[in-house]
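Researcher: I'd like a candidate sequence for this fold, 264 residues long. If you have to choose between options at a position, lean toward the conservative one.
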């Protein structure tokens, strides 16, 4: 995680290409998942585009912050939060993904009048989305409890995969100047937008390379207690970092995410 993010894309304009603009979760129990996150973050929900099945958008004080969809009963896919990276041309970006060694598993396809999307995997196997905005620009509020705070890719090492994202989205790379930590911050127009963390053998064998979304909370420890009360569980205990107090948790369907109270 790095310093506080700005408000690009939150002023009625599309997010700059490469910026995480939305997070989405596909689950089997849509109603139960809404109850969990509604109780945890104070989200309310309204229907969204239904092309891929039942789907709702989560709202915080009337602002759209995330999406949750329902998987078909016969689809046994990993349950995980997926960040969507902004693009001005999702078809061209999808071609770049293929050209640079990734794969495109879904789309590109239209999501009604909201926009156009694709779901892809990078060469290491981590899943991410691509979003070309039309009526729906993406997350419209950040920096307050209940909103996405940061997206970070956990992978074996940063060199090859960071180059992939640089080639596809035009990121500027900022490696951490440390012999002990393999970390690259991805920047758009000088602004930090995401991170790539090389963890080597510490990468979970049951998950492989993956993106992890952090959500802002008012109190990390209290939010952890709330997660467990609601049927989730703690994966990594709360710890203080240079950027805030962070804990990693799992929702009742198995989606891993982090809670962070950002120091501002």
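Model: Candidate sequence:
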């Amino acid at each position: 995680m790095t310093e506080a993010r700005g408000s690009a894309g939150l002023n009625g304009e599309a997010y700059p290409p490469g910026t995480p603009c939305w997070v989405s979760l596909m689950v089997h129990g849509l109603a139960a998942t809404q109850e969990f996150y509604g109780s945890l973050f104070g989200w309310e929900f309204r229907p969204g585009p239904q092309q891929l099945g039942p789907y709702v958008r989560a709202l915080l004080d009337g602002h759209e912050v995330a999406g949750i969809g329902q998987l078909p009963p016969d689809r046994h896919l990993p349950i995980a939060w997926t960040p969507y990276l902004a693009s001005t041309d999702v078809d061209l970006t999808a071609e770049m993904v293929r050209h640079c060694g990734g794969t495109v598993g879904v789309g590109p396809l239209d999501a009604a009048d909201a926009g156009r999307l694709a779901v892809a995997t990078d060469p290491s196997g981590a899943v991410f989305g691509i979003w070309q905005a039309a009526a729906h620009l993406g997350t419209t509020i950040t920096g307050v409890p209940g909103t996405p705070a940061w997206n970070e890719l956990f992978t074996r090492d940063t060199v090859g995969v960071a180059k992939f994202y640089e080639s596809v989205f035009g990121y500027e790379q900022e490696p951490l100047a440390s012999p002990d930590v393999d970390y690259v911050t991805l920047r758009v127009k000088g602004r930090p937008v995401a991170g790539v963390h090389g963890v080597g053998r510490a990468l979970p064998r049951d998950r492989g390379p993956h993106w992890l979304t952090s959500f802002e909370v008012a109190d990390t420890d209290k939010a952890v207690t709330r997660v467990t009360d609601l049927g989730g569980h703690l994966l990594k205990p709360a710890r203080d970092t240079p950027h805030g107090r962070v804990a990693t948790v799992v929702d009742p369907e198995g989606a891993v995410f982090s809670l962070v109270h950002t120091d501002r």
